[in-house]
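Checklist before submission:
- one chain only
- standard amino acids only
- sequence pasted in full

Submission:
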Amino acid sequence: MDFETDRRQFLELAGTGTALSLAGCSALQDDAAQQTTTTGAGESGDGSRRVAVTVQPDQQKLQQRRQEIQSELSSGNVSRSEAQQQYQTAQQELLTQAVDSFRQRADSTSNLSVVGAVEQFGIILIAGAPAALIDSLSFETVNALLPQETFQQAKSQAQQGSGTGTAGSGASATAVGDSTETPSS
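Returned file contents:
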């Protein structure tokens, strides 16, 4: 079982590395093209860029909580629906902790700032120098580096979900602190 976890982590890292190498090549081409054009949607007036990052909850803590809930379910202390709700709540709490952890680390990093977050999905919009954005991948909770538009999509989906009451208890279903300059906002 431990082997499978290590293998999964390796494959995730390998996939991220491949995606970054491809993104890096195209980013260099994009940089050259953008030097001759006006400021793009992912770039602010000061030359910094904006991208979305996704974070994941602490997998060890999540697994431990899952085992505790499974034990409660097996002993008949909770129903299946209560167990599912407890697990979703635990997952959301750990995701919120991962977002907070990222914010704290970003705040202590020069050339990197958090612009907004959709905690429900663990997606954060960050701004900074291109090198600082890439360096954010070294933060232990970061799972992916994505285009800024992905954050906007997550924000829209979270706002739609909060209107219908689909968010679980304790889940943040709204975007926190978004100051992007997009026409759709």
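Reviewer check: The chain has five helices and five strands.
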